Amino acid sequence: MTDLRALTDDVLAEILLRVPSLRDLARASVSCSSFRRVASSPHFLRRLGAQHAPPPLGVFCCYAARGGGVGGSHFHVALPPHPSAALARALASSADFSFAFLQPPASDWLVRDCRDGRFLLDRPRDGSTAFTEVAICDPLFRRYRMLPPIPDDLAASVVNPYVQRGGDGDLQFRSSEIFLASRGSVGGSVSEEDPEFIVIWMACCRGKLVAFFYSEAQQWRALAPPEHYALSTRRVMGVRLGQRNHAHGCFYWMVTLTHRWLVLDTHKMEFSIVDISPVLSGRAMMFSNQITTLESSDRRTTVVVSDVFRPDKRCVLYFYTFMHFSDRWQLLNRMILPEEWGYRFRGIIGAAEGHLFIKLDHPKDNQNDQMEQYVEYFSLDVKTMQLGSFCRTTLLTVTEAYLYCSFPPSLSLPSI
Fold first, then answer.
1. Is the pTM of this model over 0.90?
2. End-to-end Cα, the chain, rounded Å
3. Where are the domains of the chain?
4. Smallest Cα–Cα separation from 404: which of 89, 178, 118, 22?
5. Each residue of 21-39: pLDDT tens digit?
6. Closest alpha carbon to 384 in 404, 356, 351
7. H/E segment holding residue 380
8. What is the pLDDT of residue 49?
9. Class of 40-415 per CATH?
10. Residues contacting residue 184 through CB under 8 Å, at least 6 positions apart
């Protein structure tokens, strides 16, 4: 029998990657120090992440402030019979989703994004709602990293940025948008040189878009915006940077008053404008969350268009796919949602494991009873078109809802 100590880390990694389930891998990784060392290495975890889709565990909701107070947040776990329910309960009992481990006072911090199991939070710096203190957090092991401030020579290009996010309290106003980009390189390959995380900072100023990005290797750097008439002064004002979609390393925003996308390709760190009018023709697009993107395993991008302003009051989802922006989009499917969802539908909050996650307001027969009102989240299997319950909340003043998937891949490595 081969002595495990004689196997190189590369050979052990190939063996562990072939373990059929993540549960079995977790058991194997605690069986000996060699397995644990290999299974906790950044390179192994990146390869593992590319092989196993992260499970959806719940919805993290931010709530508006009431009566001049400060808004709050809460993690709502996936409920049975969803297969992630047990894992979600274990996460909720172990993690600190109040972020009490951050530098006090806790009420100053505002959640700005959630991706790959990490959270991005910020708080005003020297009274500025654009240039803030930024922290990347691991709520499971209560760890965080503070980002350095944006250098003065870059900050000088930002003049009177428009408000991107607001609330009843001054601490909730922001005139910039910050978010996390997925790791990985072109084509989905993984290498040791890939940064652990990338943070994008964006602001809309009069007649221009300003953007910076941060990585540990390159620090803060400027991004050149696209030179395009679609980003005129009037239209830049209406671009809601917080309402973005993501697939295969690209972020998408609807450009107001147009049928165009503002696209950021994080592999190339370049912006572009894409015309999507052919698939939106004849449909009223009032809100950015009427169009959603999700990834497929063959590197194609699926686009879901929600047609909600129909004479019959029904909500219809159209599924398109493309490989490259220049492709003609193919119509894959069309689904009419249940009749009562026509007035309850409030958009799609995210996608994971081939499922869309849909937000619904409380049923009409509960409108006059505040004790019976709630917000529900459903999952939709894109392949089978089967609907299933995911989670719910009785708190109705949700300002932001983030689909929470997986666990922090690198900030928690010392504790794995």
1. no
2. 29
3. 1-39, 40-415
4. 118
5. 766 777 777 778 888 888 8
6. 356
7. strand 375-381
8. 67
9. mainly beta
10. 46, 50, 190, 194, 249
